[in-house]
Amino acid sequence: QVQLVESGGGLVQAGGSLRLSCAASGSIFSINSMGWYRQAPGKQRELVASITIGGYVNYAESVKGRFTISRDNAKNTVYLQMNSLKPEDTAVYYCAAPGAWGQGTQVTVSS
Prior knowledge:
Layout: E1 4-7, E2 10-13, E3 18-24, E4 33-39, E5 46-52, E6 57-59, E7 67-72, E8 77-82, E9 91-97, E10 100-101, E11 105-110
Parallel strand pairs: 2-11
Antiparallel strand pairs: 1-3, 3-8, 4-5, 4-9, 5-6, 7-8, 9-10, 9-11
């Protein structure tokens, strides 16, 4: 079972950018779909973006046009580029693969 470790979270002002990384302990080459989720205080965890082996991507409506998910199979890493951040993007962001979750990384956007 692959293990996932997120990094790249932090505090940023509204309108700023962050790039999250998700490093896998093993090869992600054969993992069909990987994704990023987030959970804000008092809210349910929600899907932010996902990407398949073939490069098909899916985004939550709230982040379309601002966030970009990508994967580098050679580096066993999945990325989430977040631009034009809003205070409502504040949450703990989790990387996910079938049967595995990362520990999460905090993203805080100040107004």
